């Protein structure tokens, strides 16, 4: 890895290493894959929540990244490397610990099936 200047981003294989960038917003954003501003706005949307510190935002980000990584690895293990929406929804709906996520990953149905369900409700 070559370093052009301390003030410039260090690049390797097209990736930017923000931890060595003088232009980074703050040191806690280094190494985060999820946007901290988005996490901050999600936390702020919870009524009565206390705004998290920069370290708290970093912890939320890392926890979410690890959760997503574990979810994808578990789905991949179950499906032999093929991960799409249907595989992810199947895994979430079959796993009791992920029951709270089932509304976010409903089983895909056809338009005809959805229309039939609506007619049956009436």
TrEMBL record:
In its UniProt record, a GO molecular function of this protein is: protein heterodimerization activity
Q: Which domain of life is it from?
A: Eukaryota
- Ranges of biased composition (kind: Acidic residues): 1-10
Region (Disordered), start-end ranges = 1-26
Task: Please report the name of this protein according to its UniProt entry.
Answer: Transcription factor CBF/NF-Y/archaeal histone domain-containing protein
